[in-house]
Amino acid sequence: MIGLMQRVSFRSLIIGSYIFLLAPLICVVVVSFNAEPVQQFPPRSWSLRWYAHALQLESFRNGAVISFALAVAAGLLATPIGVLAAIGLHRSHWRGKSALEAIFLAPLIVPGIVTGISLLIALAALDVREAPLRLLLGHTVAILPYSIRTVLASLARLDPALEEAAETLGASGLRSFRYILLPLIRPGILAGLVFGLILSFDDVSVSLFLVDARTTTLPLAIMSYLEYSFDPSIAAISSMLIAVTLGLAVLLERSFGLKRLLAG
Amino acid sequence: MAHVQLSDLSKRYGVFQAVETVSMEVQSGEFLTLLGPSGCGKTTTLRMVAGLVPPTTGTVRIDGRDVTALSAAQRGIGMVFQSLALFPHMTVTENVAFGLKMRRVAPAEIARRVRSLLEIVRLAHLADRYPNQLSGGQQQRVALARALVIEPSILILDEPFGALDRKLREAMQVELRQITRDLHITALFVTHDQEEALMLSDLVAVMNQGRVEQLGTPQEVFRAPRTRFVADFMGVTNFLKGRWSGGVLLAGGGALPGPLQQVGADGSTVELAIRPEEVLLQPGAEATTGALTAAVLQAVYHGTSTSYTLRLPDGQTLMSREPNDGASGYAPLRFSAGDAVTARWRPEAVHLLQS
User: Fold this and answer.
1) CATH superfamily entry for domain B236-352
2) pLDDT interval class at B61 (50, 70, 90)
3) What is the b/e burial string over A89-104, where b = at least 16 CB atoms within 10 angstroms of the residue's CB?
4) CATH code given to domain B4-224
5) What is the pTM of this model?
6) Interface predicted TM-score (ipTM)
7) Closest-CA residue in chain B for A157?
């Protein structure tokens, strides 16, 4: 009897938590199909018109292109840096190692808004005024810790004798890296890249300080649209973002298992 | 296949002297084992030979050529690691082929050599498996095949059998010995297991605190240990202090059976070791030359043998161990505490230790 009650209450706790986490998302998706020009739950009539509207909006389209290009560019820039930094950190034994590691991972802990303001000041001091370049540098810094973190986790799982074995078999330096190290840490590298893509695409707080009138990202475009209108096109674009993110997460899970990657 | 010579090899990490001046030679086709407790410098010595650790001083020569400055990749040495270090993302075939691929051997030749090696280690039927799909013994054989396929000048093995259970370990030892003999390979082996060293090796180097205490054949280090450390490591439990007097060694209140070659002046002391199983007991205290009288302190029955702890007239203790074979296995114990006995042994059973 007690066992049954425990099980029931445990289940309801879990179900409750999931509802709490997912209900807003489900709401948004449902609202996005509303035919009326108001955000209303549940909708009285259904339509895909707000999807069409969202896809036609100049600011959303530009924002999506910029956000996408920015995420890919920042991801491709941060990943090699992250891999090399992680390998360097993993191998070094000098005393400053942990301090360096903390600095590399700092953007994880520092609030995004602080990173954004710091970047604004630093880039202004360096006279970097072009918004695309500022965004690229800012996003690269913001997602670098994820790349380093996931690669470090993969490296920590490796037997150090593997590289020595490769060396005794005639593979030194680059070839050992290419045939042994790289294939073994590839899951970590890809996981870091996918996290980076999602975070960059999703970012508001860092971008906020780095955009200009002509170059803005999708999340910021959505925010500024929201200031003037509150129609379901916001819900429509949000639903599309949810779909893309979900797709990436499923891909990640299928390829490597999210649990294993996050456990590192 | 190759002759290896280590001259004055040493390694220092900061203030810690891991290895101090090791010099030794391994003839072509010989199997040499570095034996010692953990931290004695045996693995560091091995890694210096492999080229994974640069020596602080000294040289490594292979077939007369100084290879000290060469990297591990350039030395052409096959190594089996303690953790085996099989490449987890490669199949058995790919693991074994790796060294040949790095040497840019033609693919057809690689396939042929990998197949022949896999047949030698009896793994041909598992060629497409991944390491995590293999048992411990099979993984061991992959590691061995991977190291051998490059036709190394020397095969180096760093405690490869540590993780195996006893039965599998013995099977692998026999197999390793057979393969190195068949292929006439010069092998350097590291272990802390005395029995493993004795059964595998042509030569055993017993190491302690970064030094080679004794280098010799298994029979030499087992039967004639030169230092207390080696004797202890080889399972000798009897140590006596003696004193020279006119060519006779006095210990335990009597003269030891001779003839013994006196080292040092009259009156100088010497430590000696005797295996317990060499000490033969007779009932009754009968002080003659070459025998010591003693009193039994304790008798312990071990099943296949019985051990007696004896007190000698000068207060030193001595162990005797008798096999319980044949009829004696069924008889009651020959002595009990308090009995007076006479202990004697063959002159060659006494090992004079260097201090």
Assistant:
1) Nucleic acid-binding proteins (2.40.50.140)
2) very high
3) bbeeeeeeeeeebeeb
4) 3.40.50.300
5) 0.78
6) 0.81
7) B88
